[in-house]
Amino acid sequence: MPLSEAELPAATFAFLAGLIYDRSRIRLGVDKRSLVASRLARHLENRGCRSFADYCDLLRGPGAEDEIGTLIDLITTNHTQFFREPAHFEILARELLPALAARAIAASRPLRLWSAAAASGEEPYSLAIVMAEQARRQPGCAWEVHASDISQRMLDRCRLGIYDADKARLPDPGLLPRYFRKGFGRREGCVRLKPEIRRHVRVEHVNLFQPAYPLPRGLDVVFCRNVMIYFDVESRQELVGRLFDQLAPGGYLFVGHAESLLGLSHRFETRRPGVYRRPA
User: Fold this and answer.
1) Active-site residue among 39, 84, 153, 178?
2) For residues 152 and 78, what is the distance between their CA atoms, to the nearest angstrom?
3) Is the pTM of this model over 0.90?
4) Helix residue ranges, H only, the chain
5) Would you call 22 a catalytic residue per the annotation?
6) Architecture of the structural domain at 5-75
7) How high is the pLDDT of residue 186?
8) Which has the closest alpha carbon to 114: 229, 179, 200, 194?
9) Intervals of CATH 3.40.50.150 along the chain
10) Which of 25, 115, 6, 136 lies closest to 76, judged by CA?
11) pLDDT at position 160, please?
């Protein structure tokens, strides 16, 4: 029988929450104790742990790094969809990309975008579709999308680029046959991004608080949406400063509609709700 919240003592929950915070900066209040118990119960059973205390011993043992990654993976929420919060993609395509693309063409370099909390890939592939459409309008515009997440399991799905067809809802139905292939046989009911789109998306495992990012500096656009809500003020402050440094002068940061930089010390210019610009 799976373990229950009653079998997750407060001290054990505190240890798990502290470990998750130290590695990911995700803050879990005591109200999340039931969530942690329910998400871990089946995994503990599969690992042969008879109690949460046994699992904590496993996390303290040698070679525990992979298991700690699994722990964070099990706890994090990965709700996403194609073109989620569509106003951001409209602003990007209609107002920002023409000038950003012209600047990149003039500098003989690719236009670089980063989806910093990519989950299973819907956001970075949405950005890739936007960029492919922009390149049709501005020939000669080279581009690349960097997709990162703390969850290796999500990144594995991102690399595949395979999704349920009924979840591939795009703002223009004509985009689906242009950029996706229908699945057949055991992939019936699925679609996959075409290789000419996938090759532009570079998938990297990134903890937003690791010492250095395996990404180029001078990015033109960063989408870091619906992730800062899980961080405390100090962590948000640190992250915003690092994202500023990662952007090129004149580059843009997008955060989720439920997020803002209000209350944080930063050097960005506010352009729209959730849209910020590093001064040129």
Assistant:
1) 39
2) 12
3) yes
4) 10-24, 33-47, 52-60, 65-75, 86-91, 97-106, 122-137, 152-160, 175-179, 195-198, 233-246
5) no
6) Orthogonal Bundle (1.10)
7) 85
8) 200
9) 86-277
10) 25
11) 97
With beta carbons less than 8 A apart as the criterion, state whether 88 and 166 touch.
no
Q: Quote the tokens at residue 237.
A: 């402050």
All CATH 1.10.155 domain ranges of the chain, comma separated, are 5-75
Residues of the chain falling short of pLDDT 50: 1
Please pick, among 25, 73, 112, 149, the residue that the annotation labels catalytic.
149
Assess whether 39 carries a catalytic annotation.
yes
Q: Pseudo-torsion of CA 8, 10, 11, 15, nearest 10°? A: 70
- Spatial distance between the Cα atoms of 120 and 257, rounded to a whole number of angstroms: 20
Domain 86-277, CATH homologous superfamily name and number: Vaccinia Virus protein VP39 (3.40.50.150)
Cβ atoms of residues 61 and 21 within 8 Å:
no
Burial class (CB in 10 A: 0-12, 13-18, 19+), 66: exposed
Helices and strands in the chain, H and E counts: 11, 10
